Amino acid sequence: MATYTVTIDLNDPDTLAFLVDKSLRVYKSVGTGSTGLPVVWFSENQFSNSLSFSWTEDYGGFVRDGGAPVPGVNVSNVSSDAMNLGDRLSATDSGTVSVDHKGVGGAITVHNTGKRDWMCGMGQIIQSKLSPICAFDLGGIGESVTMMPYEKVLMVFESSRQVDTGTVVERAISASCSVELDGNNLSRTVTFRKDTGWTTNTAGWVTLNDEDLELVDALFVPLS
Questions:
Q1: What percent helix, strand, coil does the chain show, rounded to 5?
Q2: What is the pTM of this model?
Q3: pLDDT tens digits for 32-62?
Q4: Are 27 and 133 a contacting pair, CB within 8 Å?
Q5: Dist CA 124 CA 141 (whole Å)
Q6: Which one, of 35, 56, 25, 75, lies nearest residue 220 by Cα?
């Protein structure tokens, strides 16, 4: 099972001073045909000359009260059930959940067997912890949401206002960097500097995003 790693080079005194009141927020791409919002997958506010984070191909799914996700809602305190790709997590009106192997191949599926309106999502292990990456409205009876992992992360340094891991977010206010990985390229390194922002010497697997970015547009990949 693959382990993916992204390293950020911060080796510059002015940059480290600039980041004192900032947090790194990391978001994860997902393939889906449903309407939802991204979730802060990982955050960090303690910085040194180099910062790395890693994730594995271990997944989970969750359901919770709330219906359609809205910015600012935090889903990190919801219990996520460990799932394999191809599994389906089903929820009843009472909140009882069960996992079977009747989902979509290569994806995590969450299914509503009752009439109650739930919020649902998919998680993936990062830094040895299962953390949510997205949130969707799981409507009435018979509704399903399918989510397929996609190995792209978006990173942004923003002011340390209270936006913790697990928080639903709609926009990235500051300039950000998107990095793609695959089975042949399990690690990537990018550089961040106060004066020049995000940079890399390699083209093709990195996208430099402008500020005030709609995160759904940058992270959600339509399923064909």
A1: 5, 55, 40
A2: 0.96
A3: 999 999 999 999 999 999 999 999 999 999 9
A4: yes
A5: 26
A6: 35
CA distance 31 to 6: 20
Rounded to whole angstroms, how far apart are CA atoms 85 and 72? 28
CA distance 212 to 224: 28
Tokens encoding 196: 């020049």
For 133-189, the pLDDT digits (tens) are 999 999 888 899 999 999 999 999 998 666 889 999 999 999 999 999 998 899 999
Hunting for tokens 């042949």 — which residue is that?
Answer: 184
CB atoms within 10 A of CB 189: 15
- pLDDT over 70 at 224, yes or no: no
Query: Quick one: pLDDT at residue 179?
Result: 96
DSSP 90: E
The set of residues, in sequence order, having a beta carbon less than 8 Å from that of 152 and lying 6+ positions away, is 28, 29, 178, 179, 180, 181, 219
Q: DSSP for 24-72, please give it.
A: EEEEEEEEESS-EEEB--EEE----SEEEEEEEEEEEEEEEE-SS--TT
